Amino acid sequence: MALKKKKAKKKVIKRKPAKKKIIKRRPVKKSAAKKRPAKKKQAKKAVVKSQAKPIGIVTHYFPHVQAAVIKLKAPLSVGDKIKIKGHTTDFTQIITSMQMDRVDIASAKPGQEIGLLVSSRVRQNDVVTKA
């Protein structure tokens, strides 16, 4: 008779679960996070008062012809000196060419969208004022 070998049972080692580290968090002071100094608010109001009344807003720019589309809020005519100011834009120029529906015009009324030949790159939402 042949002797049968018994299969050895594998020992199962039970491990204890690792202890979770407790992180203590400091409470955030809500009043300190929301309060802002009053001096900054007063300075912003002073800057807004010193700006000129906007004539219009740039709605589009065509880089290949260097023309800007402007939605007017006040009348404008050829020969007027304007200032265009935005996030990265700040320059003044005299209006030399103004068009509406691809036709040259001498003046434009509020509410119209016109095309202006600009000397520098402009971006959407740049503000146009009289200089």
Provide a quick synopsis of the model.
The protein is of the alpha+beta class.
Quick tags:
alpha+beta; 131 residues; Elongation Factor Tu (Ef-tu), domain 3
Q: How does this structure look, described?
A:
The chain has a domain at 54-130: Translation factors (Elongation Factor Tu (Ef-tu), domain 3, Beta Barrel). It has two helices and ten strands. The protein has helices at residues 30-34, 38-50; strands at 54-62, 67-72, 76-77, 81-85, 90-94, 98-100, 103-104, 107-108, 113-117, 127-130. Strands 5-4-10-1-2-9-6-7 form an eight-stranded antiparallel sheet, with no helix packed on it. A two-stranded antiparallel ribbon has the order 3-8. The radius of gyration is 35 Å and the shape is elongated. The model is unreliable at 46-50 (pLDDT under 50).
Oligomeric state, counting identical vs distinct chains: single chain
Largest sheet, strands/sense/barrel: 8 strands, antiparallel
Please count the beta strands (DSSP E, at least 2 residues each).
Answer: 10
Sheet with the most strands: spatial strand order:
5-4-10-1-2-9-6-7
Count of helix runs: 2
- Tell me roughly what share of residues is in helical segments: 10-25%
- The Rg value, from CA coordinates, equals 35 Å
- The ordered string of helix (H) and strand (E) elements is HHEEEEEEEEEE
**Average residue-wise pLDDT:** 84
CATH topology descriptor of the domain at 54-130: Elongation Factor Tu (Ef-tu), domain 3
Amount of beta strand: 25-35%
Shape: elongated
Compute the separation of the termini in Å: 114 Å
CATH class of the domain at 54-130: Mainly Beta
Protein structure class = alpha+beta
Query: CATH superfamily membership of the domain at 54-130, which one?
Result: Translation factors
